[in-house]
């Protein structure tokens, strides 16, 4: 029974190939058709002889998965609390990428629908200056803050205090670097 069904399937496939692309190519595909015949025969034999086992496996999977909605995946979300608001905003702001190879600046391009816009407001806050500060005001604020937080000034301080001033100096340097790019 299985062999006759498989043979009929292969003969129909042979005739279809012969009619559409020519019988010479159909004869050339005989080895491939023979392999297909063997696969169809084996899978048919397997499906008939192990039909009840296949049904049992399908039924067990149905029972295991019936309470789970279809098409769901595990999704891990970034947890937001009040302490990491800046990190949360930066994460989503940086996820956009860039536009035409240039990073866009939110202060100069507020209506940019194309991705990465860096919030430079935090750099103005770090330096303690207004958003419309000139180049000289930025440089003056930078120099004053470097003098105030320079590590050489705190050689006799505790390790915690030294580390705090070093971190503050790194923030100040980053802010000055980012804001001075606007004027170059």
- Unreliable parts: 97-108
Structural class: mainly alpha
| Major beta-sheet overview | 2 strands, parallel
Global mean pLDDT: 78
Q: Give the terminus-to-terminus CA distance.
A: 83 Å
What would the principal axes of the Cα set say about the shape?
A: elongated
> What proportion of the residues is helical, as a percent range?
55-70%
> In what range is the share of β-strand residues?
under 5%
List the helices and strands and how they pair.
Layout: H1 2-21, H2 23-28, H3 30-49, H4 51-65, H5 85-94, E1 104-105, E2 117-118, H6 121-127, H7 135-149, H8 159-180
Parallel strand pairs: 1-2
Helix pairs in contact: 1-3, 6-8, 7-8
Domain J: 122-184
Coiled coil: 155-182
Transmembrane segments: 7-27, 33-63
Keywords:
Helix Hairpins, transmembrane, two-stranded parallel sheet, 2 domains, elongated, 184 residues, membrane, 8 helices, transmembrane helix, mainly alpha, misfolded protein binding
Overview of this protein structure:
With 184 residues, the protein is mostly helical. It has 2 domains: 1-65; 120-183, Helix Hairpins (Orthogonal Bundle). Helix content is 62%, strand content 2%. It has helices at 2-21, 23-28, 30-49, 51-65, 85-94, 121-127, 135-149, 159-180, and strands at residues 104-105, 117-118. Helix 1 (2-21) runs antiparallel to helix 3, helix 6 (121-127) packs across helix 8 (159-180) and helix 7 (135-149) runs antiparallel to helix 8 (159-180). It is elongated and about 95 Å long. The relative contact order is 0.06.
